[in-house]
Design brief:
- The chain is mainly α and 60 residues long.
- The chain has a single domain, classed as Multidrug-efflux Transporter Regulator, Chain: A, Domain 2.
- 53% of the residues lie in helices and 12% in strands.
- It is built from 3 helices and 3 strands.
- It has a 3-stranded antiparallel β-sheet with strand order 1-3-2.
- The radius of gyration is 11 Å and the shape is globular.
């Protein structure tokens, strides 16, 4: 199941802008794009994001 950026933002408590920034800097690239151009995130992307959030909480 792929999540649109807004759905991922709601599930994680991050803003859409933060997720766009992560994409722009190469920290979290979406697995694909919809026909309409929406960023789509896989379960592996969600797991990577959880790792990123954990490292941020640790101050890394």
């Amino acid at each position: 199941m792929l999540l649109k950026v807004g759905d991922l933002a709601r599930r994680t408590g991050l803003t859409v802008r933060t997720l766009h920034h992560y994409d722009e800097v190469g920290l979290l690239k979406p697995s694909g794009r919809s026909d309409a151009g929406y960023r789509l995130y896989s379960q592996a992307d969600v797991q990577r994001l959880h790792g990123i959030q954990t490292m941020r909480q640790m101050g890394l």
